[in-house]
């Protein structure tokens, strides 16, 4: 099982991207992480997969982890077949060409990966991740897939004994999955500031602020609903100018 215990993440001295997120995903269970652009979905998944460390909090994960990045690295010179063989050998599991076929791969399996279409590249990248035994961490797995492949993937994820953690911002249905909303989807309150100047670090440090991102000369601030009144009063006191408050 993968377990995130009260994790938080900020890049350098920037605003907090994730705050106080706890999550555990049991074997055979799936969790879909949702939220708007920049709400921290990829950050959360990278932390769960072990590619990034949280700034605070603890993570435990099983040994065999499959990772599908949001964007597959371009310039892989191996063919699809060699790439999957290599990945499977590293993991000590059989290469799953049957899964490639089930996803409806169309293309030359012996041509360099860089020559494949976006959807076919995604199918190879997916199969690489799906061969892991314990935990599948998939960032936008539906991206580029045709309807038939999306349906095959959904069935696979619904029946795998592994723990599954995926992002989705297109409302793809994953039967039986739990949903973990991030950012405004979780908090319900977004405060847009017209002028922030040098005050952004102070705003992002206020209790209840989940993220604060500069937008032009202003900022977009996502706030835990329970703290919205206090944060609003505090930003006004700091001298910021409020453009809008949305829930
Ligand atoms: N390596 C990095 N260095 C600095 N900031 C980063 C880095 N990676 C992500 N961020 C910032 O963290 C925030 C969350 O980014 P993240 O990619 O996790 O969001 P997301 O919910 O996956 O977004 P999207 O839906 O657009 O893919 C953004 O403000 C982003 O600019």
TrEMBL record:
ABC transporter domain residues: 2-212
UniProt-listed Gene3D superfamilies: P-loop containing nucleotide triphosphate hydrolases
Annotated keywords: ATP-binding, Nucleotide-binding, Transport
Coiled coil: none
Any one GO molecular-function label of the UniProt entry: ATP binding
Name of the molecule in the record: ABC transporter ATP-binding protein
Source species: Saccharothrix mutabilis subsp. mutabilis
